[in-house]
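Budget justification aside, the reviewers requested a transparent look at the raw inputs and outputs of the sequence design task funded under Objective 1. We therefore reproduce one unedited record. The lines immediately below are the structure tokens for a 225-residue chain.
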């Protein structure tokens, strides 16, 4: 997919304030300090579309960015036939990239943390035009209980998601493959069929084409539904 234009639309404190649009939405979420803003900027090919902060957990709102693809077609498609997509009559064209608040805010009070968890939960469960969720996982660390629990929650609620392993450039190929295998082993304890995993790096732009091509494939399927 070639992106012709991407523009910030709005920030919403809750689901009910989200824009009344029927365009397909692709949400990005992960724990704090996972590199979400950097990855979104890499996908958008913009240096400062999403604000990158030195303090983890600065995304406190649901941020919508409208993406207008270039008419030039992409020929390389990834097989994501195992992912369920919501029916839509909207043609495969423009879409929303949605930057969600992170989960697992260790430094927030319980009351504030529960508030953000409700915002995330409401959006993922009730947003009718949500096509797929991209769950960001730091490739440098061992499988974390909070991430595995979040994946299981998504699966229990039939919420389609793809795992994006971030910061792959920070590891050797051997260490990356070991951590990937550890995650696959941990997931196998609860999943008969493992979620799709894409290896990414905001620094080297690894995974950009694969992620955008996956979105393009889903948009085409939605448009033909």
């Amino acid at each position: 997919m070639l992106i012709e234009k991407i523009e910030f639309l709005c920030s919403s404190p809750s689901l009910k304030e989200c824009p009344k649009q029927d365009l397909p939405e692709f949400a990005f979420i992960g724990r704090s300090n996972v590199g979400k803003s950097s990855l979104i900027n890499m996908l958008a090919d913009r240096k400062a579309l999403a604000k990158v902060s030195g303090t983890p957990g600065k995304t406190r709102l649901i941020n919508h960015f409208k993406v207008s693809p270039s008419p030039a077609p992409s020929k390389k498609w990834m097989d994501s036939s195992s992912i369920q997509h919501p029916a839509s009559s909207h043609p495969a064209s423009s879409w929303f990239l949605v930057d969600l608040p992170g989960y697992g805010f260790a430094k927030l009070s319980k009351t504030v943390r529960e508030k953000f968890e409700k915002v995330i939960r409401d959006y993922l469960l009730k947003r009718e035009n949500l096509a797929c969720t991209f769950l960001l996982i730091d490739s440098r660390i061992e499988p974390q209980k909070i991430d595995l629990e979040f994946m299981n929650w998504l699966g229990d609620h039939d919420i389609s998601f793809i795992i994006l392993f971030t910061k792959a450039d920070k590891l050797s190929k051997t260490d990356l493959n070991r951590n990937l295998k550890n995650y696959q082993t941990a997931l196998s304890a609860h999943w008969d069929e493992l979620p799709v995993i894409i290896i990414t790096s905001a620094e080297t732009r690894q995974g950009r084409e694969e992620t955008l091509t996956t979105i393009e494939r889903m948009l085409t399927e939605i448009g033909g539904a």
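The chain has five helices and seven strands. The helical segments are 36-44, 110-126, 145-156, 173-188, 208-223. Computational costs for records of this kind are itemized in the attached budget.
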